[in-house]
Amino acid sequence: MSDAEYEAAVAAFLRTKGVTKCPTVCVVPTQATVAEADRAAYREHVAALERARLEKLKLLHHIVSDAVEVVRG
Length: 73
Known about the structure:
By secondary structure, the chain is mainly α. About 70% of the residues lie in helices and about 0% in strands. The chain contains two helices and no strands. The chain has helices at about 5-15, 35-70. The protein starts with a helix and ends with a helix.
């Protein structure tokens, strides 16, 4: 597929699917007004992710500490 054919195929896809922005645009903070309930739900989601990350880190620390003890004998 030539560059011109590729560009034409992408343009046709964008026209038919109605995509006007790169999907990565969705990952930046919005400029819209967000309801407090949604913001609270998002904060809880982020907190849950952080709790899970810390729990994994704690488990990893425990595993490494046990391995060091075995090596030290």
